[in-house]
Amino acid sequence: MEHPLSNAAKLALFEVTTCVNDTAADEDRLSALQNELKLLILFFLADESNTRDVIWTSALSRGWGNLWSFVPYLHFRDMRRSHLPDAIDNTLCQYLDRTRKYVLPLNLYTNPFLCELSLNGYLITLERGIFVNWNSLVQLHLRDMSFGVGIIRDVLKGRPKLHTVKLLSCTGVCNIISEGLNTLIVIEHMIALPKLEILATKLESLHIEGSVNFVGKIQIKDVSTLVKARLIVSNIIPITNNNLMEVMDDQVQLLTSVNHAEDITIRGWCVKVLTILAMKGLASPSLDCKGLMVLIDMILEDLPATEILLQDSFV
């Protein structure tokens, strides 16, 4: 979509670009720009990857100042800043006494007609004598949840109709065991979790997303019916020569456990590890799938290795 400049903006741009020799060395020419023109520049700069650059323009000159705050869309998500959740938690904890805690009603756990459940931000602990009875449960979506010992195991155990489970940033999940589960989505970025085991004999679709530290703790025991696998592994911890081999072993193990799926999508360190193995001429997991999608985030130096990887994938 084009944004035509007003006559005033065109005039300001002309004056700045043509009158360099007539301007004193210490004059702030950026401040001389019309705000309309500066906002237009920021508008084209402010996509998801350049929000930081937009904010940095406030340091260019006094004329830019807080103009960045008037841009319609700003994206502040940065998964590399693992200290951010702690900072937010510490701030919110100062106001805990002003909040009202909501306790889930006990009859929710014993509702045999419950088909779909979505929860966000709860701490789930069950008292003795309370059993989960969700025999009609089909879909379970949980986000920012914390579970007591064995809770998620009891929730998933013996659910014949359970089709889809989606877990986003949940703690206390040590194993996912289900005989009828069809779709499993596990997304984690920040929280350090213990080992996670997945055993779902009828699973057809698996989506795992998180850091190398999180994904490295996942053990896939049995997903023999898997049709579609999506593995997105980010890097929010430094990878050094000391832990590189461990990271590579974890990724190879993960890829090997899903290499029988028909459609596989990989991104991040799954791709990085395969390219390293290809460049060194080492054996890598054979991906015998009908469809392979490789999502690549790379620098120019990665191109030769990726070319070798793609050649090996289609031999």
Automatic annotation (TrEMBL):
Domain of life, source organism: Eukaryota
Record's protein name: F-box/LRR-repeat protein
Taxonomic source organism: Quercus suber
